[in-house]
Amino acid sequence: MGLGKGFADSDQVVSLVKKSSPNQIIWYGTDKALKKPDVLLEKMVKTTLDDSEFIIKNGAKTETVKVNIPGEFNVYNALAAYAAAEALDIKTAAESLAHVEASFGRTEKIKDESHGSILTVNYYDSEDGVCRSAWASVMSGLRFFGSSEGSGL
Predict the structure, then answer these.
(1) Using CA atoms, how far apart are residues 95 and 10, in angstroms rounded to an integer?
(2) 21 conformational bin, left if phi > 0, alpha if psi -120 to 50, beta if neither
């Protein structure tokens, strides 16, 4: 029936993937997984405001992976991408993940050199534009507080 991948730490995913009955399932997850993962997040080395680094064990192979996106959830996204690449016999997954950058509005950093501050933006744009409208309001407020008119606050 095909190839499937599943997050082995989630009982709902384990159950769903089993029901879909693909010929081959590539499991990925942590050592706390319900199913023994084929691609294991062996160790979280670091996750900072700029990037994340972690160690993946895939059978006998162990690789250190760095992604230029912060956050533990992005480590799990990278782990899923790595598992999919391995399932497709793509051997450059770890190297390729080092070149991934956040898309607009997702853990995007806006630096204000004059004040030495950094604003991290993490939103998604819903179909009705609610998030985009909220973001425009935030940016408008920040511009006001950065202006001479708003600087007294």
Answers:
(1) 27
(2) left
